[in-house]
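Handoff note, outgoing to incoming analyst
You'll be picking up this chain. Sequence as last confirmed:
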Amino acid sequence: MLSFVYEALTPDHWPTFVFITARLIGLGLTAPMWSMPTLPLSARAAIIAVLAIVLLPAVPKTTVPDQVLDIPLPLVVELVIGISIGLAAAVIIQGAAFAGDVLSLQTGLSLGAALSGGDVPGAGLGQLKSLTALLMYVTLGGHLMLLRGLSDSLQVLPPGTGVSMEQGGANAAALLNVMFTSAARIAAPAMVALLLANLSLAILNRAVPQLNVIMVSFPVTIGLGLVMIGASMPIFAAAIGGWVSSLPVTVPAVINGFVPVSPIP
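Most recent structure output, in case you need it:
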């Protein structure tokens, strides 16, 4: 094992190791689980270094640019490629968190933190949804799919290769649409139920003006919202599972958006 590490880190492999590390750092900045703030920086750095050493033998050697000022640009390219690969899965988790925040607002659970002046924590629906999505993501092996995608990207886009980032940037920006779409699909059952409940309360207020609808609406919306959130968990699980299962298709599509131009001299 030590001989393998020694051979991999010989001076002629140092440029390739640095470029692979830059791509892994980009992945670690955005990918779910790898980018968790609770993961210590030292542990994250150790994981990136180990993964770079493991991937190094299968990657073509990279030459160092002749000019010192030409070195930062290819490193930034590697960082952007890694960030784009991580975004393919990050939008799923963030979409679930966004759906939880929207439901907190609609049910009225977010009013506690707003009216207390910050002394009371938020409703936590967004955190609950994101943690549930993260649990499913890890259970289904989504983090391993991203690593496989990054390993394949080192063959499709060897480190140090000049790339056209126009289409790749457009594909990365299009992932934001996936986040809002996933949030809408996850929150749709509870949102529709709460909309019908609010319409019913508005009609009731017009029919019986003496009724204090505001006092009635809070328990109705909160109770109905919690019931619908629980009832729609199978839909939530099916949606997250489908998106995670599609990562082997989504990640190559993101990678193929970066068109190789020419090796960096």
